[in-house]
Amino acid sequence: MKKNVPKLIKLAITLTFCLFAFTNSAYSQSQITISGEIKGIDGTPLPGANVLISGTQTGSAADFDGKFVLRNIPSNAVLDFSYIGFQSQSIEVNGRATINVVLIADSNNLDEVVIIGYQSIRKKDLTGAVSVVDPIKINKNITNSLAESLQGLAAGITVRNGGQPGQNSQIEIRGAASFVNSNPLYIIDGMIADANQTVNNNDIESIQILKDASAAAIYGSRAANGVIIIKTKSGKEGPLKISVTLNTGIQQIPQTWDVMNSSQYANLQKTSFTNSGLIPPSSVGANFNPNINTDWQNEVTQTGNTLDLNIGASGGGKNSSYFLSASQYENKGVLIGRSFQRTTFRINTQMKKGIVTIGENLLLSNSNTKQPLGSFDTGNPFFDMVTMLPVIPVKGAEYINANNPGGWGIGTVDAVSFSKNQVAVTDVLRERINFAKIVGNAFVNVDIMEGLSYKFNVGIEASYDFSKGIRRNGVTQFNAAVRPSFIADNRSRFSSILMEHTLNFNKKVGKHNLNGVVGISDQQTKRDFSLAVRSDITELGDQIFTEINSTTGTSVSEGAITDDYRTFGYLGRINYDYDSKYYLTLTGRIDEDSRFSKAHRTGNFPSIAGAWRISKESFFNVPWINDLKVNASYGELGIVTLGSFDWQGTINNNTRAILGGVAQVGSYQATLVNPDLRWENRKTQNYGLEASLFNNAVKLSAAYYNSLSEDALVTNLPIAVYLGNLGGTPPVNAGSIRNTGFELEASYKNTSNELKWNVGFNLTTIKNRVEEVGNRGEGIDYIQTGLTRSKVGQPLGQWYLLKTDGLFQSQAEIAAHSLNGNPIQPFAKPGDVKFIDVNGDGKITDTDRDFSGSSSWPTLQTGIQFGANYKNFDLSAQFVGVFGNEIFNSVRQQLDSYQNTNFRSDVNPWTAANTNTSDPRIGVATNDQGLVDNARFSSDRWLEDGSYLRLRNIQLGYSFSEDVLKKVKITGLRVYATGQNLFTITKYSGLDPDVQGNGILERGVDNGNWPASRIIAFGVNLEF
Amino acid sequence: MKNIFILFVLLTVISSCSDELDKVNPNEVTNQSFWKNETDAIKGINSCYSTLHRGGFSRWQPMLYDVRSDVGVSYSPWSDLANAINNFIQPDSNFGPMVDVYFDNYVGINRANAVLANVPAIGMDSNLKERVLGEAYFFRGMHYYHLASLWGNVVLQLGPSAPTDLPATSSETQVWAQVIKDLTDAAARLPKNYADPKDQGRITKGGANALLAKAYMQIRDYESAKKALDYLVTGDGASSYNLVSNYADNFKITSEFNVESVIEWSYIENPTEGTDNDVQTANHNFGTSVGQFYAPPGVGWSDAEALRWPIAEFEIEKTITNQRDPRLPATFLYNFTNEAGPAATMVYGETFLQRYGNNKRVSFRKFLHDHARNFEGYRGINNYRFIRYADVLLMYAECLNATGKTNDAYQYVNRVRARAGLAPLTTGMSQTAFLTQIKHERLLELTGEGHRFNDLKRWGDLAPTLSSKDPGFNNFVKGKHELLPIPQRDLDINPNMSQNPNW
């Protein structure tokens, strides 16, 4: 943290320098001049408020003190005053030279502008389903990425988080309707680019989430999973404003498993062997060493920390504006050997001359991730630090040999563990990944005539990724194969260039309003990589030589263009409304994509939407309803889940015949293909209602949606083994999935007292149903994936497991569990798990798996946000609640298998004298089918209630009053303390019920999921 | 305004060049442009040999023959593995190592099918074309041989796979018929040997006939098996094969492809590899990991070990010079591999005594690297001698005996015994007694080379009674455990398939 301060100072100086480049104040002279002040009702100036001569584009914006000057004005003009969040006013000049205006806050915010793709419209005119999320709420959270911050803040959005530094979250909008990809499309300032961990959330000015077909259809072939539109900040007219925010905190793993210490372990391990009639290993018997008592979780975890520093500068003249920012984010992880660090620099500028506006938004981002290098020997710390035996030391002289020069404790024949020594992992296997990235756009906008403008927008995303992996000599696991040390450099480039021409039009005739956009869009995306590896690294004392030239072994290189595709589209939208009462929106897009064969290349994506503002009808007269609107939409969207060349069968040249002592090239088609790949199509209906009640104190928005995906491209499906297919499952247009659900967003605010408070609530239900799985064979209406089955009529990826029914308490019970007198579990002993013979064939086999009756999908997801202000204090809280889902706890499965693992401290194995327990008998499973069955993986024994309610964030702030600050020439100063993930109410026994899962079809598997950290942080916001 | 609009339309037209949407894959050639010439044919058949160093084939498959038989045992702490390969307990038909073996055999079949489907249409030298097709028939036959031996009733994929293939299960009899057909087609096309040293390791006519004979013997057609073996023992091929004088040379990295080698899988080291997956990258593992999995604890995973009773079988008979049978120390690594005992027996650079004290565990030694290195690993280079000439001679003797020509059979057994230094057999044995002797000879000559399970199966000896030698057989159920369970994964996908009896 310390060493980066100079870097930031440098950035700040650069920033300041840039600011002077953009000062601009050339006013023209004229005869009639009007000046005045625009203020809020409390007398505070409204810098940036707009004043326009009604019916023209001529006008100005208020300066920093809310003052404006208009020259060359007809004396009979009408001036329109407007400001975001305030009600607009029209005032006749009547020859006056001074006009002071007080704007009234528009608590209904209906004039709030929403970006819906190639166009901005007033929120009150929306016909589709769009959620707007306040960036202030986002930035209360200390996170790696935008998606992580969005958790719980909008209806219809499902976010599942991890906790690894630099890790992205899983985000879904209105469920999962694809077997492959459920990620939404991100648009950053008009550029299609992923808002992942390389993007700085502090630069965000607005976030809009397009959820239905009407809203998203303008993005056609890429929009089926929803669209998140991000606009970054821009400058307002006025002098330079500098804001600094600094936030730093500590991070902890929320909890660890309660496992045994070495003497407890030794006792139970002895019992286990004795129960099986075996001699216990000497590590827990004669050679038990009381001095070794390794708490592996303690060794591997640490107190992490976060630092987030942002400096922003903005301002502008009459015809130009700028926003610049620099940021530094650092995160030392809660596990040793992991960290993430990001530096960003943003330049957003805009300038105008006559009818031409030119602007750009550009982000430069440089991130570094440090983590253990992935390999055979890396393992998952969230398994290994729990299961590793406490009788094995972290290091020991007895372990030192040529293959284990570090002497890492990995176990012996007398203390067998196949868990990796996770301390050794961080030492032997190292990786640093650097992402250097540019994301941005530049545009020219020409106001051709009133109501018609042309825009040429060029977007670019270019990233240069470099990962350096170092494997040192050493082992991390008992008996593991010896592998040579090496250095691996992997460089990859990604580029995506978007070019768009659009025409926006806007026409008002009487009460008829017509506006819209037409355009063309062309995007080219390319990704390539080259990999260089050489074995046998050089180390001198503590110094590890990190460059390939320092190695002395064998070299390898690889390289490929992994992506190269182009998408070409025609787009258009027409919005019509009559008197803000009746609305009609027609949207359409035609896309062509190189990822399909010629015959299947073109897709059409139309949509239609309408809305009716009932509250504007003359017959409507309900005084406590201020605004009421209903809307409905239908449309079709697409998604491409294919790689660039998937439709073509290709020859794999990687196989090698070892003949005559050398490797000779072998070639054949390793991966099967399906050439008839088509678009994945999604038909979506949306019905919504929006209302403002009780003088706009209560706002409600509700929606019901019904979305059907057709021709869902199904990849990564289990494929028959006998096909001998390698290199990935061939995609087929096989599936159809329906998502229906209800969403509610409600808010209430009370500003009438000195204690001002507000509360927001959102609720999401998602009902997911597989409609079709394609031709998978006679009588097969499901797709089986590991622990789950996706069957027609059921949700995607339902648990499909053996069913258990408690423990056998006696031999008599085992005998009674029989068919025609033959025991169903002949190997079982008292204290073993009883399985239900679902198919009634008298045996327990995989054919007895069944739907467990519980789902990996929550029945209800909610978010609650609370905010309050009292005098100079502010308090906010965010809660996230997820209810009704079940999680498969594979870490517990491994612990409770009892084999080669430490034990839970509270494990209570069944014995004849201890029958009141749910833990089966303990013993050594080799040659004991009963014990093997008890630990069977695909059983409902490992399912647990995954419901939780979490205090996601709580923040208490204090803002210094202006009087105090004026003396030190500071405009704003706020200090605050934040607690994140402070408590979670759940029955789940794993570390965190918020699991990312194992892909879309096994979403509820806790595969040693990295839990979200608990964070306590302090921050300061400074403006001057 | 008008001009702008025209410009806009113009831009639209210019931008919509749909030819730009035809992207060429710069990484790999497409199917359409391959299978055009001789080089393509050779590359195609080479991919079949690549299967031999895939993990399922080179690592797990030998265990299914060694450990599931009565000479092997697994004390693997991975109890699922020990139970599956030693104790006939496999509740999960999708159990990874088993599926790996099943899968790799089908990978090999898919590769052979690609050659068989595409090479006939290539205009090329007809001799070479025949040879390549012969190699492909061999590989398909060899992979079905393993599937027939281990799973019995499987599906027959006889053309390039398509994602929608849902074939029905073929009976064990049908699968064996396919094995015999393919290997017969192979033997008819393959050359006696290869002139170019670069081709060392390619399958020969002798190799195809030897495996064909094994297949016939498994269905107890000894007459046809003998005919296939004639080529190697009395026919054209006989001059190419002999026994090496030092038995242990068959298992050393220094004496690969010797005169005794009939079918030998070749392995070399690739020090930079990062995967066993041979299609993911050309930089994959070219070695075998059987050593890593067979090596004793502290060196390798020790998943597959030997039982101690066969040692006594070796000690029944001394050589004519009154020495211990030299095949014993070549076969097992145990406390008396060196006759002087554990203090003199070296185990990867340390004495047995140092490493294990009084431990009585026994490791299969034949494919370990302890004669050359002090470690194992996944990159073993010791070639797997799949069929040796000694095996051929003993098979030949067994066929002669089975077809009533017992007297002709002695010479072949005696040749094998003589190399070990044992005296010739006393003549005059009955057919039954001779078979019993053959069983003893095969145990001593071939233990730890992956033949024992099929031998026991052919002789009808697989039964719970073997539990006196191998307690794992306590769980053996006749009519069930001769075969492994078909992976449920495939049954889940293909309703035309059926599970093996009693599983």
Secondary-structure blueprint:
The complex is a heterodimer of chains A (1024) and B (503).
Chain A: H1 5-20, E1 33-40, E2 50-53, E3 59-61, E4 67-71, E5 78-82, E6 89-92, E7 101-103, E8 113-115, E9 120-122, E10 130-133, H2 135-138, H3 146-150, E11 157-160, E12 170-173, E13 185-188, E14 191-192, E15 204-210, H4 213-216, E16 227-232, E17 238-252, H5 262-275, H6 296-300, E18 304-316, E19 320-332, E20 339-353, E21 356-371, H7 381-387, H8 422-428, E22 429-449, E23 452-471, E24 486-509, E25 512-535, E26 539-540, E27 543-544, E28 555-578, E29 582-593, E30 602-613, E31 625-639, E32 652-659, E33 662-668, E34 680-693, E35 698-714, E36 732-750, E37 755-764, E38 767-772, E39 782-785, E40 788-791, E41 798-801, E42 804-807, H9 811-816, E43 818-819, E44 822-823, E45 833-835, E46 850-851, E47 860-870, E48 873-883, E49 886-889, H10 890-895, H11 929-934, E50 943-945, E51 948-959, H12 962-967, E52 972-980, E53 984-986, E54 1005-1006, E55 1014-1023
Parallel strand pairs in A: 1-7, 13-16, 49-54
Antiparallel strand pairs in A: 1-4, 2-3, 2-5, 5-6, 8-9, 10-15, 11-12, 13-14, 15-16, 17-18, 17-55, 18-19, 19-20, 20-21, 21-22, 22-23, 23-24, 24-25, 25-28, 26-27, 28-29, 29-30, 30-31, 31-34, 32-33, 34-35, 35-36, 36-37, 36-38, 37-47, 39-40, 40-41, 41-46, 42-45, 43-44, 47-48, 48-51, 49-50, 51-52, 51-53, ...
Chain B: H1 2-15, H2 38-50, H3 55-66, E1 72-73, H4 79-86, H5 96-118, H6 126-150, H7 172-189, H8 205-218, H9 222-233, E2 261-265, H10 290-294, E3 305-306, H11 309-315, H12 327-331, E4 332-333, E5 346-347, E6 350-351, H13 352-356, E7 363-364, E8 384-388, H14 389-402, H15 406-419, H16 431-446, H17 452-458, H18 488-493
Antiparallel strand pairs in B: 1-3, 2-8, 4-7, 5-6
